[in-house]
Design a protein that fits this description.
41% strand, 2 helices, five-stranded mixed beta barrel
Length: 141
């Protein structure tokens, strides 16, 4: 009887921890919270600035840039700094790029959540067609 109670207790703790982990933004679906495949579009233009921002919890850096396209200037969110820094494609002000991503409203303003960025014939792949981040399931390195 005691072993059954211990097993049930362990299972409850594991399930509660898994639920908390998934809601913390670290699960496989976390990167597509606001990414909407129905709003994907492609824009071309020039990188105005590249910035890193701290997450709401102050623990991680996110990378985004400002794109000056033909009809607008819009922020483009890429992903966590630790992931973006590992990629071959590096962005800098003045670069000509093509961005495919989901146009969404973030903090009351329009932004693009990038799925991929093309520069000089190379592609920075950030998310799949459903918005699942390329870094999903990877640890910070």
């Amino acid at each position: 009887m005691k072993s059954k109670l211990a097993l049930v207790t362990v299972m409850c703790v594991v399930l509660l921890a898994a639920n908390a982990w998934a809601q913390s933004g670290k699960g496989r679906n976390s990167g597509r919270r606001i990414y909407n495949p129905a709003t994907v579009e492609t824009l071309s233009g020039e990188v105005v600035s590249v910035d890193q921002t701290t997450s709401k919890r102050g623990r991680s850096l996110g990378v985004h840039f400002t794109l000056k396209a033909e009809k607008e200037t819009i922020p483009v969110h890429l992903g966590p700094g630790w992931y973006v820094d590992q990629q071959e494609v590096k962005l800098a002000p003045g670069d000509k790029v093509e961005v495919s991503g989901s146009r969404v409203t973030y903090q009351g303003k329009p932004v693009i959540i990038a799925g991929q960025v093309k520069k000089d014939g190379k592609t920075l792949q950030l998310r799949d067609a459903n918005g699942v981040p390329a870094w999903a399931g990877q640890g910070r390195r």
